[in-house]
Give the backbone structure.
Amino acid sequence: MDMLFIKGKYKSALEVLIEMKNQDVKFSKDTYVLAFAICYKLNSPESFKICMTLREEALIKGEVLPRRASCFAVALALNQNQVEKAISISSQIMKPESIICTNLNIMIHIQSNVLKTLIEILKDATEGNVSRFVKKPVFSEEVLAKVREKVKDVPALLATFEELYGKLHINGQVTTYTLDALLCHTPKDRKSHMALLNKRTVSRRTFQPLSQSLWAE
């Protein structure tokens, strides 16, 4: 399944995923991440339904899903215009201060049309009230472009946004990574995830080397 993902054969990967599910194969944490990533990449009503079913069944079993898996689920829900579901999943993510969660939160506010709150979030991000030991939030240029598009017909909000946009750039709080790139990339210093993969470098199902495409560039 992981090799199919690398090659971009998401439909074939989904078929393997469904077969694993039918055979009651127990999913590890990294399998959930890969499964949700496949559903996110397919971005169809069917893959959305499969992703939500897997998530609900995992929660019923008392399993704790990785934050990365939940982020893929939120992104998929947004892509399918299921904003309420995206909000629900996002609210259950532990430690939502990551760059991915920050940008997904902005997307949720964009699609919810909560423009004033959206601007307030950006304003809070630029202000120096946060301890210098706390990393300031970073926003995707792509996501900020969508904010601009959303507020362009409200002169007051647009003016405020442009001012905040400039401050974010000055503060180094803007990245050129797209949201998709952020979702599929994990910095090399995330040793806990790398250690998790290193414990099992061969797929139990295919006996092929596991891909680390979701964990490192």
In short: The radius of gyration is 19 Å. Residues 189-217 have pLDDT under 50 and may be disordered. The chain has twelve helices and two strands. The longest strand covers residues 139-140.
